[in-house]
Design goal:
With 97 residues, the protein is mostly helical. The longest helix has 27 residues. The chain is globular and about 45 Å long. The model has no long low-confidence stretch (mean pLDDT 87).
Length: 97
């Protein structure tokens, strides 16, 4: 990823590189379709919560993928997603109360 890039753009680029690393044409096609939605949602989440989630988890996921440790990558990704979902649920709960 490029140095000096805004965190939301770094997140989107990370997801692209992850999809590209699979060498799966379907995964790349799906990414291409959802890229703009992902950017919009990443920007919203960064505004609400800051970029810390990606800054913490993305390097760990990258290392696991680089080390070809699929189980570790899956565990870290699941934790990252769980934490993100918890934050979103808490924010939605505050908005509805």
């Amino acid at each position: 990823m490029r140095i000096g890039m805004l965190p939301n753009l770094q997140d989107v680029e990370f997801h692209f590189l992850l999809a590209k690393s699979t060498k799966n044409s379907v995964m790349l096609k799906v990414y291409t379709v959802i890229k703009e939605i992902l950017l919009t949602e990443q920007t919203k989440q960064h505004t609400m919560f800051g970029p810390s989630g990606g800054q913490i988890y993305h390097p760990l996921i990258f290392k696991a993928v680089k080390d070809r440790d699929g189980e570790q990558a899956a565990r870290i990704m699941e934790e990252h997603l769980d934490k993100s979902i918890q934050k979103l649920k808490a924010a939605w709960s505050k908005e509805t109360n």
